[in-house]
Amino acid sequence: MKSLKYISEQNIFSAPFDVTWLRKPALSKLLNFFHSQGVEVFAVGGCIRDSFWKKKVKEIDLAINVDPIRLKGILSRTNCKVLDIGIEYGTIAVILEGEKFEITSFRKDIETFGRKARIQYTDSLLEDAKRRDFTFNSIYLSPNGIVVDPLENFQDLKSGEVKFVGDPSIRINEDYLRILRYFRFVGKFPAANKNPDQKVLQAISKKKTYVLRLSRERTWSELKLILSFKSISTVIELMQQTGVLSVLFPDARLHNLKKMLKLEKLLWKIVTEKKQSGLVNTFDPIRRLALLLGNAKYSYQGLISLEKQEKNRLKFFQSRPGQLYELAHQVGYQYGFQDGIDLLLWSMANSLECNGLRFEKENINKLKTSYEEIFLGSLAKFPLNGYDLSLLGYEGKNLGLKLKELELDWVNSKFSLHRSQLLQKL
């Protein structure tokens, strides 16, 4: 293949991971068509990562050895729908049988301007690899399942270690979003990135204010992924160390967030021991964001763009007082299990003191007890209703007030009062 010129044979080998997704009908049809036209095409990027890391392959990006104008001419012979989603950078989207594929022509960047660039098309896979962001994103897969690793970076794909291709400063200048993407991948594989290259951290630190030039939508898209990982202690530490966190959140309540991360680990241990891990989402990005922001309700609006549901959830936390864990049974009854657990973590992180990040045994026991009370509260059903009181002569406003009074007594008894005991209060 002409595009593999200058690539060592030892860097071309059969994929040591499942590639059956290459045979999906729509993709297979598209790849076979390109082959019939004498075009060289490779899968690249996220689909390779997901396949190797045994994740479901969702989005398939392709790299091709013809420029986009010629590519559109070739595709005009098919019934594919073609979209110019980024043709100025060599990218088009193809929709075939309801599936979408993004195809980018081999290129090299001549001059870059943050998220923009002046480019030159090439027929060399090696040149295309050199302009990519991270080393594990510079690995290609042929239609017949052959891995092409032009820059010898397959080991980084194996380890999950996040490295820039070439000079990190140059890569960041090419696209400022790569700062947040770096932290997103670190968050995905924290164990492999506890001791990152200091040159990378220095480059990010020098360019940290560039994240403010990104769109609010792209910033939140990356931050939401970062805040969604199970363990984010490593990535938060690195974001703090480089100064990126203080740029994004100048008034961040970092100590409270770190307390919550510790509480999440303790809670995860509790739910797994009780075999209830499927009942609760312990790692919620909005709850973590709320801890970072504290009660600064509007400090995020110029930086990130939240959807309406996310805004409402953020307000849900920010409008609640601390020490709700003292009323855990009531919280579980009023808000349900998931929201109750969220409020438990929120209130404990905001109000409990700890030695460094070590919680006293008393507070750990408080977490366990509160968890159990929230669980029981979420299952509790008030044993009376309006009909019961109407039979005893109550009606209208008096009925409603009396019913609420009895319900409060029942909740305060931690749901121990039986129906007959409540009726005796009338």
Quick structural gist:
By secondary structure, the chain is an alpha+beta fold. The protein has helices at 25-36, 46-52, 68-75, 125-130, 154-159, 168-174, 177-188, 198-206, 216-226, 233-242, 244-248, 254-273, 285-293, 308-318, 328-335, 337-351, 361-379, 386-390, 396-412, 419-423, and strands at residues 12-14, 41-44, 60-64, 81-86, 91-96, 99-105, 107-113, 116-121, 140-141, 146-148.
Please report the distance between the alpha carbons of the first and last residues: 89 Å
* Proper CATH architecture of the largest domain: 2-Layer Sandwich
CATH superfamily of the largest domain: Beta Polymerase, domain 2
Low-confidence runs of at least 5 consecutive residues: none
Number of spatially distinct domains: 4
SSE succession: EHEHEHEEEEEHEEHHHHHHHHHHHHHHHH
Main beta sheet strand tally, sense and closure: 8 strands, mixed
What class would the helix/strand composition place it in? alpha+beta
Strand order of the largest sheet: 1-10-9-2-3-6-5-4
Supply the CATH class of the largest domain.
Alpha Beta
Total helical segments: 20
Rg, nearest Å: 28 Å
Estimate what percentage of residues fall within beta strands.
Answer: 5-15%
Q: What integer is the average pLDDT? A: 91
Shape: elongated
| Helix percentage range | 40-55%
CATH topology name of the largest domain: Beta Polymerase, domain 2
